[in-house]
Write a structure and sequence with these properties.
With about 500 residues, this protein is mainly β. Helix content is about 15%, strand content about 40%. It contains nine helices and 29 strands. It has a five-stranded mixed sheet with strand order 10-11-12-13-17, with no helix packed on it. Strand 2 and strand 3 form a beta hairpin. The chain is globular, with a radius of gyration of 24 Å. The two termini are about 45 Å apart.
Length: about 500
């Protein structure tokens, strides 16, 4: 029997063991095999085995959107994802596009009196946007001016919306992608939540007030969905529901052993809070001395007016306090199929006994607890993850004293950070920054090159200090102290 007479199902089984390059060569043999390798079912299978199963990011919408794509569009999607991933993981990824955005200077003040405080990359449909929050220092006034802008970055960037007001200390964009774009702004006596519409007809009506919390806070820590976490001036941490203005709960700290002063410089904040992840059932809190899980069922289902306190269900105490850190769920095809919680990436820089920070980032992972039962709620005996964290790799990220730095982790496990490792570019210069990155692994490896970072960009000053990442569309944004934003595409 000639090979072309085999049923199509047999070829689909064979294609499971071939990579994209093999299949592209296979279809050059003859016309029947060429037509066979262009079937929509073939590229659906390759999307599942070559992209989804390997946790490779790609631009996507809903499941029915994928079903509506033609065979040619599916092929283009799969080949693009492979090509971008190859570029993204090289030693020096090549940016296919780089644009500079100068955020608006409402006060006409000098550039050194403006600074980017928050950035977020997002997509509405197929259209890319950048949200920026900039402070402008006004001569002769007591408080700086906060300017929030939405930029269309499809081609030449242009501002489609702007909102400004007094700067009271912090601002956060909503981290939950399932919610409409929104921003929480700390006021002097309240917290304002504004929604953003990218299709508003009026430039000034794009930002709409949707909620107000009549509370005075020290700093906003996290904003996800309708939940806001804020640090009070006395160091206490509270959680608020933006839909219920008088609904709040204090997040209590666990009992901690005495801090060894020989390992931490007095300038380090032993009670600092770095990031939080908020889900329907639990909250993960990363602080200087511990990582803790809190059950949210009481908070979610409590009465409209509620004041109380939550103790951590489970927690892990760091042997040495951390100087900075980030946590993020990682997209996991295996976890989705097994219907378990996705693994949790943790990247931290430990504090030192000296005023300058340590020169390494440490990557840990929390694996899901296979015995976790979501319907029973989070408790000491029913934790969503196995504590403590597993150390997987160490990343070189040296910093000069007082230099600017930031760190972000994408949903597909790309960690991007700013450091001072610039000797190869600027010799022994006292200034200069490197934008470095690494796709974090999920399991321990003995490979000697597994922790080598990719160099995404460098520059010869120390003005970069804010990062944002969009892995699905291979895009990074860098905010500077002079109000400029650099957006780089790698697709």
């Amino acid at each position: 029997m000639p090979i072309i007479a085999l049923p199509a199902d047999i070829f689909l089984c064979i294609f499971r063991f071939l990579n994209i390059a093999d299949i592209l060569r296979f279809r050059q043999v003859c016309r029947p095999l060429h037509d066979l390798a262009r079937l929509k079912s073939v590229w659906h299978m390759l999307l599942r085995t070559q992209i989804l199963a390997r946790d490779i990011p790609f631009p996507s919408a809903s499941a029915d959107w994928l079903e509506s794509l033609s065979s040619r569009e599916l092929e283009r999607l799969v080949r693009r994802a492979i090509r971008v991933r190859r570029n993204w993981t090289t030693a020096a990824p090549r940016a296919t596009r780089q644009v500079e955005i100068q955020t608006s200077d409402i006060t006409r003040s000098p550039a050194q009196q403006r600074a980017i405080k928050e950035l977020k990359l997002l997509h509405r449909g197929s259209h890319p946007y950048l949200l920026s929050a900039t402070i402008n220092v006004q001569t002769g006034t007591q408080h700086p001016l906060l300017v929030i802008e939405c930029w269309d970055i499809q081609r030449v960037p242009f501002c489609i919306a702007r909102k400004h007001g007094p700067w009271a200390g912090s601002v956060l964009f909503n981290a939950d992608p399932s919610f409409p774009p929104s921003v929480a702004i700390q006021g002097f006596n309240d917290v304002q939540i504004l929604s953003l519409s990218t299709v508003a007809h009026s430039f000034n009506s794009t930002f709409t007030p949707v909620a107000r919390l009549p509370v005075s806070v020290g700093r906003l820590i996290s904003f996800s969905g309708r939940v806001i976490i804020a640090l009070e001036s006395d160091g206490r941490l509270f959680m608020y529901d933006s839909n219920r203005a008088h609904h709040r709960m204090e997040l209590l700290s666990p009992s901690l052993p005495p801090l060894n002063a020989h390992f931490v410089h007095p300038s380090q904040q032993s009670d600092a809070c770095y990031e939080a992840i908020i889900t329907d059932e639990y909250l993960v809190l990363l602080r200087a001395r511990y990582i803790a899980f809190y059950a949210l069922r009481t908070f979610r289902r409590g009465p409209a007016t509620m004041h109380g306190a939550l103790h951590p269900a489970v927690y892990h105490v760091w042997q040495t306090p951390i100087d900075s850190g980030r946590i993020a769920h990682r997209v996991s095809y295996n976890a989705t199929r097994a219907r378990t919680e996705p693994p949790l990436n943790i990247v931290v820089r430990f504090a030192s006994a000296y005023p300058w920070p340590t020169n390494m980032l440490n990557h840990y992972i929390l694996h899901p607890n296979p015995d976790y039962l979501p319907h029973l709620g989070v408790s000491t005996d029913n934790a969503p993850y196995e504590l403590g964290p597993t150390h997987l790799q160490t990343l070189s990220a040296p910093l000069r004293l007082f230099s600017q730095t930031d760190l972000v982790i994408g949903e597909y496990s790309t960690c991007v950070w700013l450091d001072s490792h610039t000797e190869a570019y600027f010799q022994q210069s006292a200034t200069g920054q490197r934008l470095a990155g690494r796709v974090l692994k999920e399991r321990y490896s003995t490979s000697s090159t597994s922790s080598v970072a990719s160099v995404l960009n460098v520059h010869d000053t120390d003005t970069w200090h804010q990062l944002a990442i969009d892995e699905r569309h291979s895009r990074i944004a860098i905010g500077a102290q002079d109000g400029r934003v650099t957006v780089m595409d790698y697709a």
